[in-house]
């Protein structure tokens, strides 16, 4: 790939890799703003777009962008669409294609750029299209083609440059050696020298130079060894220089079109002699002048087998017009004004197999055709024939006969008696009122019979009984009212029967007789008068004998299907695959209606008047693949919840009355890949939040034209597009919640770990501080002082308290002390005993030791005492240290450390030399009144 395209293509490859899962496992899930994706995954974008759309899914292989207003193709437009096989850009305003635009389209096979404004094709314009096989450039303004324009198109087989402004074809085939079809009609090419196209042989098979004003046709080298079709319609004029040095240069041409020729007989002879050894099919339409001479010259070519002379205004075919055409096998005089043919006109055509005289003014079958005993196909359609004679068609070889679009009124019983081998007969679009037994005895090998759009009102018993081989019978568009007489007796091989648009009445009292159609596969009864009053079972179901029927069409009944159909209406149709009962305005179906059609795969119920559908209606048809139920006034799709349609792939519910789609409904359709809800209006509030998000995000179901869904509620949003509504307030963003929850959990874990490691004792202290505060608020000022002091100590220090402190203070000095082992009330909560003891004493003596600091209850006691100290702002706390405890060891006990800096305290460990001073200081502390904080005595014994 050239370097200039690699950069942009790399972007596409990167995008492809990022979406690799989507690329490998393609689905049909597309929601586009500017395009619609059809059932066969073709993206159709026809919204008068001015630029190439950017939201086309990567998996789309076919894009139709015709009829827009795109003026330029940029190199970035197609970089994300590497899987394209077909791109249609016709009828735009494209005047420029940037070099490298198609650099990534290595799989593109068909490119259509018809009807644009392209001027000159520059080098590199189609760079990257290494697998392109078809290129359409019709109806642009192309004047020149750069020699390297098609350099990348090494596999191109079809090139259409018609209706441009090309004047020469220099080097046009130089880089496309495998081109097989070249169309260059309606340009301005006047000279066609072979050296301009190529200097070596090509693989060209078909060349179309129609409507060019050729002055010179020069072929001096054998560059077209494979050419079989040459179209020079409108190119051969008087004065043209025809130079073909060697007739072998065009020896392979078997099909030649020189319609519209305006040349002398000598000039035409010169042209036709070029193809003297190979020409088989010759077209001479729109000749008008010298037609007979041209026919004579043409029929001298020994290899000629087919001659078309349409649109020449011929009125009469004379006996000498074709006397030289002895080798013709096909003769087409269609679209002329022929009223008469001489009886011996075709006498010399001993090998004629196909004779076409359609679209003329014949009033009867010409007798001339009786002289051609080799005919296998005769087409006399679209004439003025009103009657068929008995002896006009005595041709044993005849296989195909077209008499459609004439004025036939009636048939005779033996008109087809000699057509023993006829296989295909067309009599449609006449005015036939009666068949008169024409098919009761003859044509045992007939396979196809068309009698559509006549005026048949009645069919006799066994009307077609001789047609033992008939497989396709069409009688649509007649006036048949009943089939009770057994008209299909003997048609045991019939597979396709069309009775559409008649006046058939099928009801409880009038059933059609289909008993002999054992092999019938398709039955079309559309637009008749089928009508039943109730859904009660009927004694004789109309299709009970059609066990092989695959397709049944019943839509559009004139008399309507009424409000009901019998519950056993479909009895016998065990192999039915397709059922069409749309447009009949019935409003209910019995819950057992589909019990007899368990193999049904396609169901059309649209354009009826359902207001409700029984929950179990579809339960028997679990193989259903496609369901069409549009325009039926459905108020809800909840009936699908109970249908168990696990194989349903296509659902069309256009133009109904539902406005909310519930999540369980869509989840019940596990195989759904295409959903068409076009023309519905939706409630644009939180009720449809799930559906809106599902439309945008689901990876399986393709929701057709979802960006055009409109709101019908609430009033302020009427007319707004559903997918433009912001419903974020309706949903809980689980991802955000999970993010916040996870973040908070992580932060809390870190905080707890940090706090436990560095602030464990501060937390313990804070906990007890809170408890003390609560009990302080609850019990303060509730009672008078009962004791002089509450002694707070640890059980390990109980010996010192009872042996030293209690004898000195109570026995010698007369203070009343509160000791927990002696004065706490049994049965009360400990914390209440502590609180009552502290607030019931004038002061609190804390006997502090290392064991004291680690005691839970001692901590609570000092917390409550501290709160009393701070709350009352009085000197009510006395600290007595039994041991020397360094200040740094008190750091975890922040409150104790703070108290030592602000409060009185005594040290027993330092009072060994002066014990009397220790007890005197303690007595003074107990004796002093509760001074305000900061005015206490310094009692520390040094």
Automatic annotation (TrEMBL):
Its membrane topology: Single-pass type I membrane protein
GO CC list: plasma membrane
Alphabetized PROSITE patterns for the sequence: LRR (PS51450), TIR (PS50104)
Domain of life (superkingdom): Eukaryota
Keywords: Glycoprotein, Immunity, Inflammatory response, Innate immunity, Leucine-rich repeat, Membrane, Receptor, Repeat, Signal, Transmembrane, Transmembrane helix
Pfam families (UniProt xref): LRR_8 (PF13855), TIR (PF01582)
Keyword Transit peptide appears in the UniProt entry: no
Record has Glycoprotein as a keyword: yes
Transmembrane segments: 12-32, 758-775
Family matches, as InterPro entries: Cys-rich_flank_reg_C (IPR000483), Leu-rich_rpt (IPR001611), Leu-rich_rpt_typical-subtyp (IPR003591), LRR_dom_sf (IPR032675), TIR_dom (IPR000157), Toll_tir_struct_dom_sf (IPR035897)
GO terms for biological process, alphabetical: inflammatory response; innate immune response; toll-like receptor signaling pathway
One annotated GO molecular function: signaling receptor activity
Domain TIR intervals: 785-926
Cellular location(s): Membrane
Coiled coil: none
Family: Belongs to the Toll-like receptor family.
PANTHER family tied to this protein: LOW QUALITY PROTEIN: TOLL-LIKE RECEPTOR 13-RELATED, TOLL-LIKE RECEPTOR
The name this protein goes by in its record: Toll-like receptor 13
Lineage: Eukaryota, Metazoa, Chordata, Craniata, Vertebrata
Gene that produces this protein: LOC115537481
